[in-house]
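Budget justification note: compute hours in this period were largely spent on complex prediction jobs such as the one shown. Inputs:
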Amino acid sequence: MREPSVTTKVLENLAVLYTDEYINGLVGEKLEEQCCKVIEKGLNRIIINFRHTELINSIAISILIGVIERIMESRGILYFSNLTKINKEIFEMLGLTRYVRVFETEEEAINQMSILPLEDRGEEGIMEEDNGKQERKGV
Amino acid sequence: MAHKPDANLNLLNALPDEEFFDREKDIEDLYHLAIEVKEGLTASLFLYGKRGVGKTETLKKLYRRLYWNQTEVIPFYYSLADDSLSAIEFARDYLIEFIKQHVGFKTRDNLLIAGETLSLPKLESLLRNLDDLWLIELVENYKEYLSSRDFPNLIKNSLTAPHQTATLKNTCCFVIIDDFQKIGDIYADGNKLNILSLFQEVISSRRAPHLITGSSLSMLDILNKEPFLGNLDFIELEGLFEEAAIQMFEGLSHRYKVRIGEERALKAAIVDQLGRIPFYIRSIIKRAKYKRSALDTDENFYNTYLQELLEGSIHFYWSSVLSRFFRNPPERKRAIEIILYCQGAEGLHFERVSKRFFKDDPEAERSLDLLYRAGLIDIEGDLIRGVQDPVLQDYIRCRDNIELRGLSLVQVRQGFITERQKEIKRNKTEEKGYTLDLTIPIASDMELVATRVLEQLASVGNMDEDSLGQIRMALVEACLNAFEYSDGPDKKINIRFILEGDRLTINILNEGKGFDPSILNEPKIEEKISSRYKRGWGIKLMKSLMDEVSFENVTDGTLLTMVKKLKQTGAKENERAIGND
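Corresponding output:
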């Protein structure tokens, strides 16, 4: 069995997590664990960079939903970046993009996250759809 | 002077040559082995093969050639009766047949050889006229052992007659015994007599070697039980090669004036459906002749085929086998269920089959053994499999539909034809495209093996990147679903990819408890976010990414079929080019 691989880069006010080529349940759990560690350290602005990820299975997606919930509870911000076309399509189809903003590149995600004042972070972070209209969910 | 064989005589005139194809080399090889007996070079042989493959006709042709083409090796052909014989009947019958054929060969009396079995008094009278003291002694010995009820010696006297005769008369004999497996059914005083052990001496004879034959499974079983039989030389008579089977099909249709299609693919499909087994091919042609129907289209063939399965020679043949081994209806019914259950399985554990059909009934072993002896299932070690005989499989399905499911003949006919049409369509699809079969173990990340195969297929099929990404994801989900719902002992799933033109079909078969997707609710993100149970996205993903997704509960498992209509890479580039213009 391969070792699940998730690496973390901690910047000034945020952390970037890099995932494996294939996110199965084990890698998903590792990702969740890393997110929790980051949050425990007081960082609740997280970007998950999927640049290495070709495939994400449904077990991992359910874990990602758990990560979204966790960030919501911590009133943090979660962005996704570098998604392949199919992975983006899947996240849109399942509704994850109603809660998480998706950026083409990590740089764009960092730039967006950096311009948010720390106290207002919730306004830009987790989103929730309401009556077909997307609005920021304050957490 | 020898007479030309009379067409009505059995032994000297086997099937007409037009009905018997592609065995010339087998017969020629056996003939040479037989005439080498005079040089003491030939050991006893075991000729094996499936039911209906043409063993009996091969033996009869061999006998015929030995009778007409040479004078030094005395041929003796004996076929064991269908019904259980008593030891007395067998010993008498075997001895009379041997003496009759021996005398007939020596005197070139075709009528004696091919005529009905003689009574003992008639035989004695014949021998007195010939003044053959040795043969008279054999008959006297028989009578003496009979009166003293010395069954082992009674049988030994008959079985060793060819060997002893050859030795005493300084000549050679070639003994051909058909349906040898029935030897186990011979009884004396109500008990089975181990006649096999009495064969030990005669089998090793170089003056009168034996060529024995029988259906493969039962014979191999017999050979396992009597190690001395392992010294036999083994020769397999296989089903016909495609070309020979087609040739036979064409030859018979010409002979019986049955119209067949010109297209080779159709002829090949027909003989394949018939397992390339001569008995089945002959039965179909004769049925078509009898019903004055043609075999020129799939539909016409399957109509005739179904008639054969329901009421023709094939029906009669397999019904006889079933009735012979399973005399009462409940036993037969269970036998049909078991055969059906084992069909198509790669190997089911004995315990599993036994538990399912017999619970704790100690009869399980006996019944499964009977099925095996009847050639209706195959057993290897602890594993049970269906027999690779497409006609038998269809026959059993028909009986299951009628007797167990209570369907009418009309319903069975309709269901059968519909199923065949689908299959023909599927086969045509497969012929045009690519079909890949893959079996993967249920283990972590094994779904990625399936995606690698898909990628390879995509490169061959010129599949566009978007479609590939979607199918890859759906395939991963399908594999995970199959893993989750499998509980078969083999811990594996089977995947078939069928790529045809702009359509990819993926079948995933898992053993197990079955799966009903209708019980699942459509997952919603807003509910999942706050729910403890966040899983349950697989089916939604498959359905969203593929064009067709269906689940079917099959025998002891689930078959998932996913279809994707593809955009070809080239086509997409063309679309872009047109758009740019």
